[in-house]
Design brief:
alpha/beta; 2,3-Dihydroxybiphenyl 1,2-Dioxygenase, domain 1; 8 strands; four-stranded mixed β-sheet
Length: 127
């Protein structure tokens, strides 16, 4: 692995209802996810400008994707301030399970929420 490569290059958040999950994530982040069927799965992709060496991912509804509160944790970008994203989670149908918490001055802040599909997902921001 070269210095320009990320250890993480792609993530998938498992969903049981792609339409509901798209609405949830579009609502809390103020973005538009592009949906398509791929390899027999329903997918919705988070926006990304250039995939060359950058991390991106999507929502996936398919037989190998089961939402879970106990699976691997991913941290989504909540910059510039987690407070903005966190204020949208419960109105969008999610639940905050760990409020904005300071990790350290150098690292910033984190929080956990349960999304519309039952996944526990984390957020990180510098402020």
């Amino acid at each position: 692995m070269t210095a320009q490569e990320n250890t993480l290059n792609w993530f998938e958040i498992s969903v049981s209802d792609i339409s509901r999950a798209v609405k949830f994530y579009e609502s809390i982040f103020g973005i538009e996810l592009h949906q398509q069927e791929m390899m027999g799965m329903q997918m919705a992709f988070f926006p990304s400008e250039d995939m060359n060496g950058k991390v991106s991912g999507g929502l996936v509804q398919g037989p190998m994707h089961k939402p879970s509160a106990d699976g691997a944790k991913i941290y989504l970008n909540g910059n510039p301030d987690l407070t903005v994203v966190l204020s949208k989670i419960e109105p969008a149908g999610g639940k905050i399970v760990m409020p904005k918490t300071k990790v350290s001055d150098e690292i910033g802040y984190m929080a956990f929420f349960v999304d519309s599909e039952g996944n526990t997902v984390a957020l990180h921001s510098n402020k």
